User: Fold these one by one.
Assistant:
Number 1:
Amino acid sequence: MASYSTNEFKSGLKIILDGDPYNIVENEFVKPGKGQAFNRVKVRNLKTGRVLDRNFKSGETVEAADVVEMDVQYLYSDGQFWHFMNPENYEQLAADATAMGDASHWLKGEEMCKVMLWDGRPLAVAAPVFAILKVTGTDPGVRGDTVTGGTKPAKLETGATVRVPLFINEGDLIKVDTRNATYVARAKE
Amino acid sequence: MRCEEENWRPTASLASLRLRAELLKKLRAFFDIRGVMEVETPALSRAAVTDRHLASFRVDGSPGGALYLHTSPEFPMKRLLAAGSGDIYQVGKVFRAGEAGRLHNPEFTLVEWYRLGFDHHRLMREVAELVQSLVPGLRRSPEYLSYREAFRQHAGFDPLIADRQTCIVALRRHAKALPAEDALDYDGWLDLVAGEIVYPALGNGRLTFVLDYPASQAALARIHPGDPPVAERFEMFLHGVELANGFHELADAKEQRQRFERDLEFRKATGLPAMPMDEYFLAALTQGLPECAGVALGFDRLVMRAAGAHSIQEIIAFPFERA
């Protein structure tokens, strides 16, 4: 089993703590005078996204997490799993709802996504940063109102809901920033 | 990768390097006026420090066997003292494996000096005088706290009678990150509380000296008998950063050998490499070390403070990552 010593710690390193994979966000070396040295680290749980602080006695070793990132193409969902294909070798993999997180809100088919694999299993999926999606339901638009800055909810073809400006109509195409689920602009066909 | 191409450059500004040179000049003048002689001792040695928490760089390839880069010039400087050198100081590079971070560079500059007839109290006053002459804007009167008072004031417990559980409670109360519970002995827990809670609170606008360390953390200091006995050792802090560590020097060769042996036992028990004890140093102690106090001052951190720098990399031309 591969492992890292604390003196190899740096941000971006993937380790296993209490059975879960973590990404090191920050690492600080702390040594009081003549005493015991510590590595004070901030780590993000790659399953839950939660960030926590940990102190390690310097020189301790920690199990390495076999985590890799890969570009894959979204194929379809069977309701329980979302299926992707690695375009390089045509191998398919399936991600469950936990790994999908919010990514499933933005996928129609054929999008290239980033998937993070832990021991070969999908841990997290990231949709493309921008998605062009059709509005399938919203209150009627207020003609000409492009300045008041008011917003209303709009349902998209993937089932997701985002807040859009008042002038957006059903059937319009909009560009959405998938990182924070916000409307960016009206889009053309 | 633009940043990679730029890595040949120094991380310190030229202004910081000029300040560094200026401080070095003043430092030498400080000792010169006081009649303290500058000396040089080997950086590469057959013997090495046995300290539980210091790792020496090992250098192979010499026909006589492994050599070690010194972590401080303490042993050969004490050999000079035993040989009758009188007051001495040294400014030089020392090396500590695995110590890298915002306040650490594995290769750094240490100022170490010894004063005959001084005890640690008198030496603390001299350290304060030196630092106040190099770092502008410090209040004149330093603060003196025993290790015990420092913990009571800032961590809310008495380190000489507390236990691991008290440390854990204090760390939780201050929302500090914990290690695995079985990872540390009691001194280790105290070190964690010190580094996370106590030391960061010290040296606000003036120097804080912490003294009377637990006897278990004596290193090369004398132990003052009492209940409980305490080590005649001090550390000096400025803005939460340790700048210096000093001792009323242990001169008892027999006790020194025992401490080395205890360190080596600890190293063996915890899987750390064994270190060859410095027999020259022990022989010098047997011959007789004059009554003296000595201190090591981190020059880089002093420059950091004078420059108002946030990290040691801002005042070292080429830190380890670019060496």
Note: Residues 22 and 268 of chain B are 44 Å apart (CA to CA).
Number 2:
Amino acid sequence: MYADWPLLSLVIWTPILGGILVLFAGDKEPAGARKIALVVSIVTFLLTLPLYTQFNTETHLMQFVERQPWIDAFDIEYYLGIDGISMPLILLTSFTTVVVIISAWEVIQYRASQYLAAFLIMEGFMIGTFSALDSILFYIFFEAMLIPMFLIIGVWGGANRIYATLKFFLYTFIGSVLMLVALIYMYTQANSFAIFDFHHLKLSLNEQMLIFLAMLVAFAVKVPMWPVHTWLPDAHVEAPTGGSVILAAIMLKIGGYGFLRFSLPITPDASAELDWLIITMSLTAVVYIGFVALVQRDMKKLIAYSSIAHMGFVTLGFFIVFRIVNSGLGDQGAALALEGGMVQMVSHGFISGALFLCVGVMYDRMHSRQIADYGGVVNTMPVFAAFMVFFAMANAGLPGTSGFVGEFMVILASFKASFWIAFLAALTLILGAAYTLWMVKRVVFGDIANDNVAALKDINKREFLFLAMLALAVLALGLWPDPLVEVMHPTIENLLNHIANSKL
Amino acid sequence: MVSMEFVYLAIPLASLAGALIAGFFGKQIGRSGAHFVTISGVAVSFILSLLVLHDVAFEGAPIYNQSVYTWMISDGIRFEVGFLIDGLTALMMAVVTGVSLMVHIYTIGYMRDDDGYQRFFSYISLFTFSMLMLVMSNNFLQLFFGWEAVGLVSYLLIGFWFKRETAIYANLKAFLVNRVGDFGFLLGIAVLLMFTGSLDYYEVFARADTMVAATMQVIPGLDWSVITLACILLFIGAMGKSAQVPLHVWLPDSMEGPTPISALIHAATMVTAGIFMVARMSPLFELSTTALSVVIVIGATTAFFMGLVGIVQNDIKRVVAYSTLSQLGYMTVALGASAYSAAIFHLMTHAFFKALLFLAAGSVIIAMHHEQDIRKMGGLKKYMPITYWVSLIGSLALIGFPGSAGYFSKDAILIATKNADVWGAGYAYMAVLLGVFVTAFYSFRMFFLVFHGEERMDEHTRAHLHETPAVVTVPLILLAIPSAIIGWLTIETVLFSDFFDRAIIVFEEHGAMAAVAEAFQGPANFVLHGLAPGPTWLAALGVIGAWYIYLKNPQLSNRIKSKVEWLYRLLDNKYYFDRFNETVFAATARGVGQVLWRLGDALMIDGLIVNGSARLVGWFSGVVRHVQTGYLNHYAFAMISGLILLLGWVVLG
């Protein structure tokens, strides 16, 4: 029944139009605005489900394709479609948005309808980014998404929000301008903005290098990779809880997605040539950032640094493939690495989102994110503490949770490339546990540290609901990742075949 | 007739069900509800495990090796969850569920007044589930799952009394030290996957030959045999979980947890997971004598030197903890000697007598109102007769008194080590032989200080001293029986029959077990053999020494202490491992973190590059502002110059 529906357009425009509706509902009746926002987010989520259930796992070709001429003068098209790497990210987006809307319920009182509208509109832009197959359409969604996030941090953020928003905006903007230059250059060569025409565009090594580096800046800032990561801790610290959740769960993924959709297939030779750079940056993220996370005093900063370290596995998995293929020991491992990176993206979406929500729950009560202000939370909030310990364990990569799956796959695969790469990557087992559980020890366990902690009330039903939703997702993916991994196989296989062929 | 698949599945799930009900509905079902469901669950697991053991041992049930479900397929590699049931598994299942059941019952008494009653039952049942999944696995993925899951439960249980700073320090330490082991373990699994393309035990074993010839350059210019590398990495995992030097530091601290879990997790079952794992991997370890040498040397070092530390401990639980370390060392030595079955046999007997000793210590602790210092005890024999007698049985088993369970397993290890020929076996034999004396000495030092001699407790405590209730003493008695007789009953089946066929592989050239078999002529003969001059005499010497120094002539111990003060201090500080780790590893990690954060992130990246370029932009815009004069002719001039430059570039380029 869904076959003829323009499903992708529906899931892009439903939240955007819904968001505008919420905006009109206004702040006088925040209760109404909340209900509309919730309904819109749930409807959008339900609309994304057929993307999974109706997805054909036998083909690498784009599915649910919509293609219309849009700006004829420049051959720009309204061209949408999804495959095994974009579909899971779209579901992640629609799921997380529901969680965020629920989490904002009573917490946001100031301009509530605008806050909710910003998230809905952003949802549409993010889904658009994942499903755009025309590079200019991609670019527009990619940029447009920044605006609501900019407002969310700038209007509902903390004391130092102006510095954080500026840093966030400039970093990401500079990156994306370079990408635009690269896209326009490729248009002049291909006479098309369609991403697939870029995939098959013949490019010299020099051209590839320049294009690769231009896009690298754009995507590395988004991921973020060391050393262009310093905007993230600042942005997280100042962002309201919902902003942090979306930032960590979805926005960072667009960087990883960009590598798969653009860098690897468009510039395979440059990717192979410069894989050492990305691998070094990724391992630095795992090890260097792991140490930095250890000494953070602000919980949000700690989780932000932990995000950077975990995203290191994504880029490591994506770029280790060249070394695996060239190891002389057969190709097995390459697909494992790519799929591992993808699983890590989805899993990180759940876990980091959950951890930011946990901090939000405590912040709403104590108005502090400083670890030193806490201690013995478990005494007054036992149910919350159970969730917090669970998500912390997931963050530390405990088997049975989603946090284990991606890291496991990438570490296993990278061993084939080099013992030492696997060695450094596996250090996350120790570092990840150290920074996460040390925080848990100081915040959750121990005797009641002060009167504020003594006065804490355990989570209410609403808070229980959104934490339980994420806990179930983390557990389900950890106990049975196959339903997620299965949809990726043809796409990943096709990608590997594509990059194995030199463009030179 | 229910199919065996159903039985195998029911064994772990029965425990899991109990854990989930007690964990999520603890409030609704109350205290008695919680212990009822969890004990029922574990009892079902235990009875079914006995059934499986019976089938495997006596009915000749074929080896079962089946997948339960496919966790994931990626890159053509099947990641499965499945069971492998053979002699080794069946024995482990029976031991785990048996000890767990005793500990469950005992907990009713021990935790009676604790607020976290339901939570505790939920955790120990969850532990039983995890441990069962670990031992029943037929592949490395699930092994790692169970491995980390038991680590998680151990973390939760060491920190069970989360208000105590020492407890939450100990559980973090335990988790992190174990993670160091898991780090090696995971890399070991990666080696196996890389060279065999599979994570299934049997497939890996079948293709292990490819790793014998292969070499890898881990350090440039140095070729390492892949099989040796794989085995050593796996063994690092075992060192973490089974607390071998230098990754042993977490186990003594784990005594911060309630005593029942010290018995169940940190003595009888979880800490033996490493031993089990190496025995399970015998087809791999047999291929690398280098790895076996590493195993035997590490094990011997742990066995002897950790035993020595036990002599100077005054906390009743810590003495037993160091004894556990030492006994785990004995098992590891047996592994290194290729006497895997002897290691597993000692694992089994140790599980019973060490759980017994811990639970007996717990009984003493209850009676003493949570006093754990043995210097404040003494003469408890007349107040607690049952605890006294079971402790005596446990201690005799521990020191290898002829005929007791420990005698059979320890003597098998001694003979095997003597006949082992890997590099390091000579050192190992010396260590385990001297260890016999040390074990007897510290065991009976504690025994005499607790149960005999002067009553050193205060009046109030003395007035309230009495034997503990039946929920405590009945499990003690039930554990004392196997501690006394199980060696005699089972040695023939476990060590010298075809019980472990196909589960444990020993190459002919590694003849240690064959030598044991030669020396063995029935259990009665084996006991008589123990009366000849040898290890048993050393043990007797240890007991007499302890009696003379701590009972007969109590001032003597202080005189010795002051005579060899350096040695005392070395042992009292546990060879300074903790201080070394704290000052070197922990402090360095925090220091590196600070430096990278303050210098790397804040000063270099943000200070110089980000804010620096912001200032640069500010300066640049200041310059550019002068260019924007507002005069049309200036702009026209700029445009034309630009056009000329552009054209020139196109034409000439």
Note: Residues 334-366 of chain A form the longest helix (33 residues).
